[in-house]
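Anyone up for a design puzzle?
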């Protein structure tokens, strides 16, 4: 059988570091398209934003009122513009009221933003999944499954973070900064300018320091992971290590890796130490500088004089501004990751799908297919290996209802010949016709509905046996499912399970034997009732009873249908109308079993003899 087509290696990519794009106009413009998924929920978003602004601004009134409270303690009550005088008690009450409001608005902000993010992310995941299943098979061969699934898991999660947290944070930090700076300017322009020239640069340097430390910490982690890999490898293959007397070699290898860990860890700690002393000297120094300047202003009378209450207001606002600047630095990294994630998601959403499920159908939609198949000089190369011709000049005819068998050595191209009928790939030359029409003229979905496949290895989906059989025709009635199971010689063993058709199979259910799985697949195909059948015989041998049951089911299935059998055991194909012997991607012999077995020195006669000798 042709390889499943899925490139299953590299699931590790899901967790690997992915490149982050630069934040610039171009990348922003490209990635912002992801926001169209948010549009249906824009009303909720606006309400959330309003709540956010309200919660930020109520919170920003806190330092102002706290300053007034200290002022009131200094016998300077707060006098409002309408003449009301507020003393300590009233101001404290007001402060309390503000906090209650802030709590309420914060709840609203979280409630609305998380709704927007949950719904948006659901829609993006749905769109991605819808696109995945419509992408042509070569896409899955060229991209690793791990990388594809991480688009729908980690990349979407990254974006979810943005919708629920980062965006809100960004707005909050910005509004805090704007309100904060305006407020301190109102308190004292001189002190504000002094603060703005000292504090933000210190915080920015601290942010850069922090980023460098994170990078180094990640490097240390990676080095440590390397050492663990060595331990795992060695322990798993301890027999080989000992047999090759490589104990010393392995110990040295591990030792070298450990040294690398220490080197990177020490470098990282050098920065960490530097960071701590920078914070102590730089940041606290900056605070001392501002306090010194502020104390001078409080101490000296004159036009720039500050009251103690004003000083408290100023310091609280400054702390908020400082926190928001630090927060904005962190935000940059998040925005960068989000841009990367949305670009990767949009790339998939922009891929061209297979032309299936186009409603109304785009091509020829016959009400019934007879099943007369012609391969005319078909040539084929897999898109992943365009330099290797897999099939050359395949030319044959199967009349409607006839049965042919493809035989030949492993890798000869049998599965590929049969699979081309499904149009998973485009041909490199020649054409295939069904009932006289080139397959490309048919509507893809309509055509695939007429072809049934019983693969070598049947994959059952997680669910009940009933659902697995009904996969052949969703919506089939119980009676139809039971009839199909009976005709596929499967009903007896299904009834043997206490839950019958409701028995769960797949990863979380019971494990069916190879023969049982095949009979479920046959029941599925019987239910689908296609005009054309592709049967890929299992290579792994079944016990003789199971083989008899499977063979009986296959015979039942093949009745009145054009069938292509990819045969591994020649004993099962004596009755077919024609046998095509394939070798190296070409038809090297064709004829009935009797004709071919009598051909002296022929490949079929040889294979027959080999199998006979083996059994
Ligand atoms: N998806 C794929 N991508 C690239 N090459 C492939 C793919 N599937 C099969 N091939 C290659 O095409 C050739 C024909 O494979 P195919 O599976 O059709 O042979 P087969 O005769 O059915 O073999 P078997 O009897 O072992 O199932 C082989 O060389 C195989 O390596």
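Challenge accepted. My sequence:
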């Amino acid at each position: 059988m042709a390889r499943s087509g899925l490139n299953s290696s590299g699931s590790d990519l899901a967790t690997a570091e992915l490149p982050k794009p630069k934040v610039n106009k171009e990348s922003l413009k490209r990635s912002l398209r992801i926001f169209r998924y948010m549009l249906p929920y824009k009303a909720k978003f606006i309400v959330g934003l309003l709540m956010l602004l309200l919660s930020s601004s109520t919170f920003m009134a806190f330092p102002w009122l706290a300053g007034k409270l200290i002022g009131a303690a200094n016998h300077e009550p707060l006098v409002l513009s309408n003449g009301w005088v507020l003393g300590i008690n009233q101001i404290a009450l007001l402060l309390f009221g503000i906090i209650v409001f802030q709590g309420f608005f914060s709840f609203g902000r979280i409630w609305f933003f998380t709704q927007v993010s949950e719904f948006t992310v659901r829609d993006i995941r749905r769109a991605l999944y819808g696109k995945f299943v419509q992408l042509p098979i070569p896409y899955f061969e060229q991209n690793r499954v791990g990388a594809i699934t991480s688009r729908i898991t980690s990349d979407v999660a990254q974006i979810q973070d943005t919708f629920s947290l980062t965006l809100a944070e960004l707005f909050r930090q910005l509004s805090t900064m704007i309100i904060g700076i305006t407020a301190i300017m109102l308190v004292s322009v001189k002190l504000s300018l002094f603060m703005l020239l000292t504090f933000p640069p210190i915080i920015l340097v601290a942010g850069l320091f922090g980023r460098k430390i994170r990078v180094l910490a990640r490097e240390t982690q990676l080095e440590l992971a390397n050492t663990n890999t060595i331990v795992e490898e060695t322990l798993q293959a301890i027999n080989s290590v000992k047999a090759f007397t490589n104990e010393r070699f392995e110990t040295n290898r591990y030792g070298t890796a450990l040294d690398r860990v220490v080197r990177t860890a020490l470098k990282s700690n050098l920065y960490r130490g530097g960071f701590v002393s920078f914070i102590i000297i730089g940041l606290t120094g900056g605070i001392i500088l501002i306090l010194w300047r502020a104390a001078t202003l409080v101490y000296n009378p004159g036009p720039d004089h500050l009251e103690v209450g004003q000083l408290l207001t100023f310091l609280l606002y400054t702390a908020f501004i400082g926190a928001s600047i630090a927060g904005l630095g962190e935000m940059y990294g998040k925005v960068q990751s989000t841009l990367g994630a949305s670009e990767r998601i949009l790339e998939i959403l922009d891929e061209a799908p297979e032309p299936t499920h186009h409603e109304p159908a785009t091509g020829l939609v016959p009400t019934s297919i007879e099943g007369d198949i012609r391969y005319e000089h078909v040539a084929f190369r897999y898109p992943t290996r365009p330099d290797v011709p897999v099939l050359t000049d395949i030319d044959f005819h199967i009349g409607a209802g006839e049965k042919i068998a493809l035989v030949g050595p492993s890798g000869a191209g049998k599965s590929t010949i049969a699979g081309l009928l499904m149009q998973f790939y485009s041909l490199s030359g020649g054409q295939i016709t069904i009932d006289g029409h080139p397959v490309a003229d048919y509507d893809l979905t309509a055509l695939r509905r007429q072809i049934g496949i019983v693969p070598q290895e049947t994959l059952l989906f997680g669910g009940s046996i009933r659902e697995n059989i009904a996969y052949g025709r969703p919506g089939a009635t119980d009676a139809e499912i039971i009839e199909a199971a009976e005709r596929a010689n499967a009903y007896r063993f299904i009834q043997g399970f206490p839950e019958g058709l409701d028995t769960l199979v797949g990863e979380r259910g019971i494990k069916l034997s190879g023969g049982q799985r095949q009979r479920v697949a046959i029941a599925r195909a019987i239910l689908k009732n296609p005009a054309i059948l592709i049967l890929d015989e299992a290579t792994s041998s079944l016990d003789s009873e199971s083989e008899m049951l499977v063979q009986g089911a296959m015979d039942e299935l093949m009745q009145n249908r054009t069938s292509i059998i990819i045969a591994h055991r020649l004993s099962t194909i004596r009755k077919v109308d024609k046998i095509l012997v394939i070798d190296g991607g070409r038809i090297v012999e064709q004829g009935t079993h009797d004709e071919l077995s009598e051909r002296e020195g022929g490949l079929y006669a040889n294979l027959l003899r080999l199998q006979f000798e083996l059994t």
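A detail worth pointing out: Residues 1-3, 5, 141, 382, 384-385, 390, 408, 410-416 surround adenosine-5'-triphosphate (CB under 6 Å).
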